[in-house]
Amino acid sequence: MRNAAVELILVNREINAMVPASMEKTDQTLRPVDSEASSTAWFHPLEVFAGEDESNKWRQELSELEPPAHRTYTPTQAVLARSSGIYHWTTEGRRLYDFTSGVLVSNLGHNPLRWMRRFARYSQWQPNLLFGDIEGDEITRAEEFGMGLPMTAYNSVTSIEVLACERLVKSLQQTPLGRRLETIAWAASGSEAVHKALWVCLNRDPSRPMILATRYGYHGKKGLSNAVTGSESDRERDPRVRFIGFPREEIRDQSAAVSIDLSVYRKELESIWAEYGSKIGCLITEPYLGGGGSYHPPREYHQLLQQFCREHDILLIFDEVQANFGRTGSMYAFEKYGVEPDFVVLGKGLGNGVPVAAVAGSSKWMKMLPYGELSDTWSANPLSCAAVVATLDEFESRDLMSHVRQMEPRMLAGLNRLKETGLISYVRGEGMVYGIECAPFAGLAPAEVAAAIVSGCYQGQGLQSDGTWGDGIHLLGPLAKCVLRVSPPLVITSEQVKTSMELLYDLLKAVRQRFS
Does pTM top 0.85 for this prediction? Predict the structure, then answer.
């Protein structure tokens, strides 16, 4: 791992040199991880920002209590104290536009009051249960426990679970494209839900154990979900998995009017079928390549995959954990792409912050598995089901999709303007999820530019003349080393789009000046 360590150290040194004078950093410490535990140990860069004494303390403490592998690399490791709507606030009170939605989770924004009240009511919580006096002797022995739904109901049935299943199936079947989605299997995370979807497909016919997965996709880090993530070059490949091409170079920039030669992908599918034939049981893909760099293909590509699956009786899994509940501009991404999947995997925005995921699919295949095969401790827990129903209520009581479609051209215009800085080479995306690909600049690699942008946006406008802190922007570490994802909550207003895009442009100009 020597090369990885050296690269991270170089990136970190570059960031140190680019901090505005108003926010000069103290000496940064690069502390090696204990190499006795692993032969693949690498240096963990720990950011130290001036003016953030409290946040620096929390970063330091956490770095000693958690392994680096628990976190994905983001130069800032922002310490968030509270959040509301599309904003975060740091421990020091600096306001950040949230351009992550908590990794595509808080589609309705942070702590939306109507959603939270519905969530509490579905959980049968009363105000005095949560906010009564807990000090001294105010709680008598007879009052030690309140009344509400159980927070876990393993191998039991609750009315909220039934309601969540009914409401989700009804929502999925609002379009004829969802007619195969009749049954719900719950999970606690997207990785688990993908694993369960694949498990169902493999159970259909033991003589068809092979899985096709689109190359450079991201489906998770656990079990079968990890097996279908990445490409052939990744280590520990599952011998049942074969990867197929996904458009990338042809659609590298949103504004490029480039036609895609689908015959290349058709030929690849036919070649794989000729080699493996009826051993292939299912195909899994994402609506757009999320972790792979935010590549959004034309509808015709996914329709080609569906046609191939129908021709050969292959089950089609649409993994839209990162794309469901309005993120692409449609309630479900399979609607946007005109696909009728056999299974759709949901998560992230499904619970607006409460951990929950699900597989929706044909009851014919789902009900073939015996008792216990898809169960786990947290599946269908009442808390998660209440969050799903509250989220469905919000989407069904307001026209968020029209709003997202109205904001889309404004977002694209603001992001395309960033190319003027010379730091961004390509922009792509849809709805309220975009990838901006960083360019090499001033002798620096795109990965170094991306890391500097994340750090510069977090630091924001810095200390103002009146002694207050200016706004910043919260971004995560780059996808595919050089692509920054821009995915604010769907509820972002027109005025917030305007001000945040202006701020992003100004902050990138400041980063460019420091490079120069």
Answer: yes
